[in-house]
Amino acid sequence: MPRLLLILAMILPAAARAKSSIEEIGDFTQFIVPAYAFGLAMGEEGYKGAHQFMYSYGATFATVHALKQTIDAERPDGSDNKSFPSGHTSSAFSGATFIHKRYGLKQAAVPYALATFTGWSRIYADKHHTRDVVAGAAISAAFTWILVDEYSGFSVSASPGGARVGYRKEF
Questions:
Q1: β partners of residue 161
Q2: pTM for this one?
Q3: Which residues have CB under 8 Å from 52's CB, separation 6+?
Q4: Cα–Cα distance, 54 to 52 (Å, whole number)
Q5: Across all residues in the chain, what is the average pLDDT?
Q6: Which residues make Cβ contacts (< 8 Å) with residue 20, sequence separation at least 6?
Q7: How many beta carbons lie within 10 A of that of residue 31, not counting itself?
């Protein structure tokens, strides 16, 4: 029994630190993915993509926060009743889905992975239920698919020697 207590005394603080680190990374990725999407859009001539991103992100943000105030859903950790839907997840998926819709799925693979991690981190940290995360992702996807147009003059490619961003405009 003392050996088990010693092992638990060593493992539990490490597990708590890991949980805290995962939550902190999720806190960070909720902003990084949309910031990257906005940065890509700002590189376009005329800023049409940036305007569309702001409309879809703003609509997502307003809807998610209105639902949080309206729906009385307790968080798994019991800290408050603002669990549904996940704001972190909606933010990250707003950026990833924007990149997908505007620039193509190939360019959105890493942003989708980061957005998925963001959602998972919220469940792992006991801040959200799975339904909260799925709802946050769905809300952002819906607004993005409605408000954002495809952009065909943009390309991103990577090779072992580096990365390349290209823009093509036909006259």
A1: none
A2: 0.80
A3: 41, 98, 102, 147, 148, 149
A4: 5
A5: 86
A6: none
A7: 14
